[in-house]
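INFO batch 0412 | record 1 of 1 | parsing
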Amino acid sequence: MLLDTASLYYRAHFGVPESVRAPDGTPVNAVRGLLDFIARLVRDHRPDDLVACMDNDWRPGWRVELIPSYKAHRVAEESDRGPDVEETPDTLAPQIPVIEEVLDAVGIARAGSDGYEADDVIGTLARRAGGPVDVVTGDRDLFQLVDDARGVRVLYPVRGMGDPMVVDEAALREKYGVASGTAYADLALLRGDPSDGLPGVPGVGEKTAARLLEAYGDLDGILAAVGDPSSALTPAQRRRLDAAREYLAVAPKVVRVAGDVALPEFDPALPAEPLHARELEELAERWGLGGSLRRLLDALGG
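INFO prediction complete | emitting tokens
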């Protein structure tokens, strides 16, 4: 089980009231919400391995170099020495280091790689996995990893973590009209995504993208059809796709997750008991983690 950690703690932050606070008054709604999410996932799915995948760089420079608008609207402060600072709610930012400390003390593996997003870490670990993989994310970008033959599916939260939508190839066909995760990536780059600053091809929405992929197989097939006067593309489609060639030449590298990220050694095994019990006890007292931490430890011990 691979967690898109930032996606989940953002969801927890907005889903759990800020009135959930530590003894000193600091909001801990994202911390406690994430612990409850993980407890529910462990209890319901009993993974052998669990990795919290991290954004060491939420807006990698190599992606920005290819598409400068990539996540540009989320930049709070540009940096010459490291990743740009992402615009983060004031009450969430201080909770992120606490989340990291608590996960480390519990013994839940965290994995990240400088210059890469959590998506790329997830893509790499999913590719390396020798058995079925559940990717837990609230971000549709990772639907591209769905692969029935390899047992890779996405658990997509709908309300909390109690009943996530299971996204497999059948779900992709039903919802988006594409037959695979790879085809979903092509659909996403054709359609674009304003939330990520991806322009897409003007005039090509989700349904049109799905029809083009059904007719021509993949992005390369669509571009071949643009250059083929005998293809069934409408004049407007041909014109729009031809005008977007520069974008379509770089978009695949930006949209598709990396699958070969170098990662440090770590133990992904689900812990049965806390790795650093005394440190965890101190964190629990300081931050008032209460029932959320107990529920997670009970789930791990079960």
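INFO post-check: The longest strand covers residues 152-156.
INFO record closed
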